[in-house]
């Protein structure tokens, strides 16, 4: 159980960090994603 909870917490933290970057540098990230795809 602890491992799954840690994984979920890590995912939530990563998503929150990604959202922060998205709001700060949305255009740049969108360009990188388009290039990656």
Q: Which outline best applies?
A: elongated
Radius of gyration, in Å, reads 13 Å
Secondary structural class: mainly alpha
Give a count of the beta strands, DSSP E runs of length 2 or more: 0
User: In percent terms, what proportion of residues is strand?
Assistant: under 5%
Q: What is the count of structural domains?
A: 1
Largest sheet: none
Please provide a written account of the structure:
It is a single chain. It is built from 2 helices and no strands. The chain is mostly helical. The protein has one domain. The radius of gyration is 13 Å and the shape is elongated.
Descriptive keywords:
37 residues, mainly alpha, 2 helices
Give me the secondary-structure topology.
Elements: H1 2-24, H2 26-36
Brief characterization of the structure:
With 37 residues, this protein is mostly helical.
